[in-house]
Write a structure and sequence with these properties.
single chain; 2 helices; 16% strand; two-stranded antiparallel sheet; two-stranded antiparallel ribbon; alpha+beta; 4 strands; globular; 74 residues
């Protein structure tokens, strides 16, 4: 099973994708927490956090198989 780790909590990729789609469909709704924050966050802010994280992973240029490992192993 593929998982995404958010704040030391692991969620399945399917749950993560559904959450992003729900935030996209409801940009003004306030959710319990965001992708990078524990405080209540709007759907629009969640999408911004998603895009910021995606850009960060692209710009890090770390191979997928090496992500999450200590830098000494990269």
């Amino acid at each position: 099973m593929r998982v995404v780790t958010l704040f030391e909590k692991r969620v399945s990729l399917g749950v993560y994708v559904r959450a992003i789609k729900t935030a996209k469909a409801n940009p003004d709704q306030e959710f319990k927490r965001g992708l990078t924050t524990w405080r209540p966050t709007t759907g629009q802010d969640i999408l911004r956090q998603f895009h910021d994280g995606m850009n960060a992973r692209i710009n890090e240029a770390i191979p997928y198989v090496s992500r999450g490992k200590p830098l000494s192993n990269v």
